[in-house]
Amino acid sequence: MNELDKSKVLEAIKECVSFVFGKIEKEPFDKEKIIEAYNEHQFDGFDDDLKLDSSKFIDRKKIPKIKFTITSKDIEELKSDGLLVEKDGGTFFSPFIANAEFPVGKKVDPLIRLMYAVLWKNGDLLKVSRIISGITKTPADLNPQGFVFQQFGKFLADPGEPIIDQHVMRVFKIYKTWQTNHDVDLEPFFKKGMTNSDANAYIAWVKDIVHNKNASRDDIDEILFALGKAAKKLWQKTKPKNKVG
Description:
The protein is mainly alpha-helical. Helices cover 57% and strands 3% of the residues. A two-stranded antiparallel ribbon has the order 1-2. A hairpin with a 2-residue loop joins strand 1 and strand 2. The protein is elongated and about 70 Å long. The chain starts with a helix and ends in a 9-residue tail after the last helix.
């Protein structure tokens, strides 16, 4: 695509983001009606790219909704059982899980060992501390990535808490910036990550919509996730393909 095409893509993305957020903020909340109205709208020739179809939504067969909760009491019980330990200002998995050096009378459930192995293989063992800080509402000075996991911990303890995702945050930032600056260049939004301030603003916005519109947090999340994914996929088409030679 040339620069003119990129400009048209950015305008289409601004329009689709504004359309969805306008529906959410100004009309009675109805997930299906929002999606239907959006898919019937014309977005400057990019209708097929921006369409919110099944490919844009989370595949619930692969990633089902989490319906369980984890409480501060659960964390304390895991500490009492020796599965979690406090160190370096956080709460982490006990070394005895990996070392298989279980205290007398203690046994680690095979499911725990399996989940531990998955985290170990992905290099994610330390992230549990950030999630636990959210579950227990323990203050922590975290970078944006850590903030995302802490907020996920808050969701695990209270399903009313929003989940933060890159696709959702992308369109939220575009919308909020575009409200005050219609000439803003959207390209940086597809390159830079979020800040903790961005995340806090989104959390407050979702809670306000849920409270004032009697909306479902899950429905808001699903719509914005699909919208953010659609916007990113269209934006990626403005990038030159690597030549093989």
